[in-house]
Amino acid sequence: MKRLPKLSLLLSLWITLPLACALPAAAADISLLSGGAVEPGIVAFAALVKRELGHDLKIQFNTAPQIAKRLAAGETWDILVSPPAVIDAAQKDGKILADGRTQVGRVGVGIVVREALPAPVIGSAEALKEALMRADSVVYNSASTGLYLDRLFAQLGLSDALRPKTTRYPDGASVMEHVIHGKGQEIGFGAITEIGLYTSKGLRYVGPLPAETQNYTRYDAAIMTGAKQGSAAADVLKLLATPAARAAFTAAGID
User: Containing domain of residue 38, as a range?
Assistant: First the structure.
């Protein structure tokens, strides 16, 4: 006759097996390269990822043109957050997985001046034109926001008049710092989300571009084919599509 297992062994198995099954997957460090305009939302989302999944997002921020250059140079990340055009190009090159692409949100363009200056009137396209013509200088970036502004100023017939008094920077942060420490009647432009990071540092947010001239840059998230943490990255993008993630981005000013 076979001997029955000892009661202590049975109890041990009864206790430990359910616990083992309930253990979460190991926490992972997930690399993420993102456009700077969505930084406030990504930072808030990273806290949600840590709380819900236990993973740490290791984030770097760049402009869309800089991201495109880094991808062309062969850099690989687990997750890429960028305007669709950058992701589309990377996908054509076989660097992005076809499945799992998720929309992050969109960011509009805002207008700023130094805190000590009165806010110019910008309620319409015509008012914006007048404010720009009166300004001593105009400052904006060479990234997604700046590329749109180039087209807008051309449509408004302002390109030739603004060119001699325009200062460009590769990123939004440099624009904000320039305006804060600038001189004269200076008007700056940037992603509304980035502006919010500087309003307590000497920057006055005048408001968004007039509705008839506003432009929104969309951002998507995708997993790169060379991802080292592909499975964990997929879980992160699933979380990105939840109401909790949407709320975090909305609170950061990302539609």
Answer: 28-105+219-251
